[in-house]
Automatic annotation (TrEMBL), chain A:
Residues 238-380 form the Thiolase C-terminal domain. One of its GO terms (molecular function) is acyltransferase activity. This is Acetyl-CoA acetyltransferase. PANTHER family: ACETYL-COA C-ACETYLTRANSFERASE (PTHR42870), NON-SPECIFIC LIPID-TRANSFER PROTEIN-LIKE 2 (PTHR42870:SF1). GO terms for biological process: isoprenoid biosynthetic process. The keyword Nucleotide-binding does not apply. Keywords: Isoprene biosynthesis, Transferase. Gene3D superfamilies: 3.40.47.10. SUPFAM superfamilies: Thiolase-like (SSF53901). Pfam families: Thiolase_C_1.
TrEMBL record, chain B:
This is DUF35 domain-containing protein. Residues 1-23 are annotated as: Disordered. InterPro entries: ChsH2_C, ChsH2_Znr, NA-bd_OB-fold, Thioester_dehydratase-like. Residues 31-63 form the ChsH2 rubredoxin-like zinc ribbon domain. Pfam families: OB_ChsH2_C, zf-ChsH2. Residues 70-131 form the ChsH2 C-terminal OB-fold domain. Signal peptide: none annotated.
C-alpha cells in the first residue's frame, strides 16, 4: 500500500471568525480532523503548516498544541500549494519510520484579521519593483496571465465565466459554502470589474477559517481501520515568486511538470481521474490547470469547460465543494483541496453531491501568483 | 552606465501618495540611474545574459555583480491588466489604470504602469519609457505608447 494514508480531514468554522486568530482556526481544524481519524493530540508525531501570521509556524503550532517531542516539523512556505507539497515530505518521513501520525494544518483570519503591510517605504528588494506599479495583487497578476492566454488561444471571458457557474452549481449543494445561489454566465460578466479580464465573480472569496488533514503510516492505518485513502503520487515545482513578470511563459504553469510526474508515480493517466480538485483562486487558475494536467490540450481549456463539463453530472466533476470561488478561501486554499478530494473518495456524501464510485482523485495546489504548483494523486485502495 | 537618457523625468514628489522603492544592494544603481532618466538593466560580461530586476548574481552563469548598461527604453506589451480596484495606497483616484509586463528591446521583462487610456492598450503595443520621480532616491519607469 502506498503511504501515507489520509486518516482524517476537517475544517474549522469558516466565513467570519472574528473571535479567532489563525492558530485557533488551525488548532480547531486539527482536533476535528484527529477526531475524524479516531486519534488524539497525544498521538501526533508532527505537524506540517504553512501560512499563518507567524515566522516559524511549525514551532508556533506545535507549541500551541503542546506536542510532546514532535519528530516532524515542516513549515515550507510555497503558498497555496504548500499542503499538497507536504504530502511528499510526510510520505518520505513515514517510509523511513520517522513518523506515524502527522497533521497538515492551516488557519487564517484573512477576512477579519489585520491584513497586509501597506507601508509606503518599500525596502524589500523585489517588492520595490512591484508595489509602486499599483498592480492589484494577486488578482491583477493572474489577470495578466489570463489576458495573454486569451491573446494566444482566443479564450473568452464567457469561457472563464463557465467555470464560476459550474463551481457555483456544486456550491449550491454544500451547506458550508459561502455562496449557494446559482449564477449564470451573464451574472459573472456583469459583476463589477476587478482587474481585466476578471470581474468579481471570476475571483475567489476572502474568508476566515482553517483546515487539517491527518496523514498516517500504513501500519497505523491498519490499526485504526480507517478507509484507506492513499497518497499515490506527489510532485511540486515553481517558476517564480510574486513577480508575475518573472514567469517565463504566462500561458503555462508548473502543473505541466508536476501533473505528469505525479500521474506517473501513481501509475495513472488523466483519463483515470474520477474527480478533480484544482485550486481555483480565479477562474483562470482552474482553466489553465485543466490544460496543464492533461485533461485537454493547451489552449483548449476554454472550449473544454463549456456546457458544464466540470459541473454536477459533467464529464469531469471539479471543485465539488464549491471551490475557492464559492465555498471559502482563507488565503491558502490548498488544504481544502485535499479535504474535499478525500471526502469524495470516502463516499461521504449523498445524492448529486457525491461523485459515484470515485476511486481516483487529483488534488492540485497553486501558490503565489501561479508561482508554485503541486499535484497529489489520491486513491481509494480496494 | 552610458549617461544616455532613456526618457524624460517628471518630478511627482509632491503629488505621489503611493509606495516608494527604497534602494538597497544590487538595485541601488538601477534606482540611481532612474533619477537621470536612464533605464538600465544588467548585462553579464561573462555570458551575455540580460536581466532585471537587479541581482548580485547572474541568473545564468552565476557571475557576481553583473554590470549595468543603458536600455533604449523601448519595449512592447507582453500582457497587461486594467486595474479597477486600487492595488496599493495612493492609487484610489487613479482607477482604472493599466499595468503591463513590458518586454524591453534588450530582453528583460519589467512590470510597469502604462500611462494611457485603458481602451487603447493592447498586447504587442510599442511603448517607450518615461519616469515619475517619487522620492529623492527613485523615479518609477512609467511607459507610454510610442
Amino acid at each position: 500500500m502506498a503511504e501515507p494514508i489520509v486518516a482524517g480531514v476537517a475544517e474549522s468554522d469558516l466565513g467570519e471568525t472574528p473571535d479567532r486568530n489563525w492558530l485557533d482556526n488551525a488548532g480547531i481544524a486539527t482536533v476535528r480532523a484527529l477526531e475524524d481519524a479516531g486519534l488524539a493530540l497525544s498521538d501526533v508525531d508532527g505537524v506540517a503548516v504553512a501560512g499563518g501570521d507567524d515566522y516559524m509556524p511549525a514551532l508556533v503550532l506545535s507549541e500551541y498544541l503542546d506536542l510532546e517531542e514532535p519528530s516532524l516539523l515542516e513549515g515550507t512556505e510555497i503558498g497555496g500549494s504548500s499542503f499538497e507539497h507536504f504530502c511528499g515530505h510526510v510520505g518520505d518521513a513515514m517510509a523511513r519510520g520517522r513518523a506515524d501520525v502527522v497533521v497538515i494544518a492551516y488557519g487564517s483570519t484573512s477576512k477579519t484579521g489585520p491584513g497586509r503591510d501597506r507601508s509606503l517605504e518599500v525596502t524589500h528588494p523585489v517588492d520595490g519593483f512591484l508595489r509602486p506599479t499599483g498592480l492589484f495583487r494577486p488578482p491583477g497578476a493572474y489577470a495578466m496571465a489570463a489576458k495573454r492566454h486569451m491573446h494566444e488561444y482566443g479564450t473568452t471571458e464567457e469561457q472563464l465565466a463557465e467555470i464560476a457557474v459550474s463551481t457555483r452549481e456544486w456550491a449550491s449543494m454544500n451547506p458550508k459554502a459561502a455562496h449557494q445561489e446559482e449564477i449564470t454566465v451573464g451574472d459573472v460578466l456583469e459583476s463589477r470589474p476587478v482587474a481585466e479580464p476578471f470581474n468579481l465573480l471570476d475571483c475567489c472569496l476572502v474568508s476566515d477559517g482553517g483546515g487539517a488533514v491527518v496523514l498516517v503510516s500504513a501500519g497505523k492505518a491498519r490499526e485504526l481501520g480507517v478507509p484507506e485513502i492513499s497518497v499515490a503520487g506527489v510532485a511540486s515545482t515553481s517558476t517564480h515568486r510574486q513577480d508575475i513578470s518573472e514567469m517565463p511563459d504566462m500561458t503555462t504553469t508548473g502543473a505541466a511538470v508536476t501533473g505528469p510526474k505525479a500521474f506517473d508515480e501513481a501509475g495513472i493517466t488523466p483519463a483515470d481521474v474520477d474527480v478533480a480538485q484544482l485550486y481555483d483562486s480565479f477562474t483562470y487558475t482552474a482553466l489553465v490547470t485543466l490544460e496543464e494536467l492533461g485533461f485537454c490540450e493547451n489552449g483548449e481549456g476554454g472550449s473544454f469547460v463549456e456546457g458544464g463539463t466540470t459541473a454536477p453530472g459533467g464529464e469531469l466533476p471539479m471543485n465539488t465543494q464549491g471551490g475557492g470561488l464559492s465555498y471559502c478561501h482563507p488565503g491558502h486554499f490548498g488544504v481544502f483541496v485535499l479535504i474535499e478530494a478525500v471526502r469524495q473518495l470516502r463516499g461521504d456524501y449523498t445524492g448529486d453531491r457525491q461523485v459515484d464510485g470515485a476511486e481516483v482523485a487529483v488534488a492540485h495546489g497553486t501558490g503565489g501568483v501561479l508561482s508554485s504548483s503541486s499535484t497529489v494523486v489520491l486513491r481509494r485502495e480496494a | 552606465m552610458t549617461g544616455a537618457e532613456s526618457g524624460p523625468v517628471e518630478d511627482r514628489r509632491d503629488s505621489w501618495e503611493g509606495p516608494v522603492p527604497v534602494p538597497t544592494g544590487a538595485n541601488s544603481e538601477f534606482w540611481a540611474a532612474t533619477l537621470e532618466g536612464e533605464l538600465v538593466h544588467q548585462h553579464c560580461e561573462e555570458c551575455g545574459t540580460a536581466q532585471l530586476y537587479p541581482r548580485a548574481v547572474c541568473t545564468d552563469c552565476g557571475a557576481v555583480d553583473p554590470p549595468f548598461e543603458a536600455s533604449s527604453g523601448v519595449g512592447e506589451v507582453y500582457t497587461y491588466t486594467v486595474c479597477h480596484v486600487p492595488g496599493e495606497p495612493g492609487f484610489g483616484d487613479r482607477t482604472p489604470y493599466v499595468v503591463a509586463a513590458v518586454d524591453l528591446e534588450e530582453g528583460p521583462r519589467l512590470l510597469a504602469l502604462v500611462d494611457c487610456d485603458p481602451d487603447r492598450v493592447e498586447i504587442g503595443m510599442a511603448l517607450e519609457v518615461t519616469f515619475w520621480q517619487v522620492s529623492d532616491e527613485a523615479a518609477l519607469p512609467v511607459f507610454v505608447p510610442q
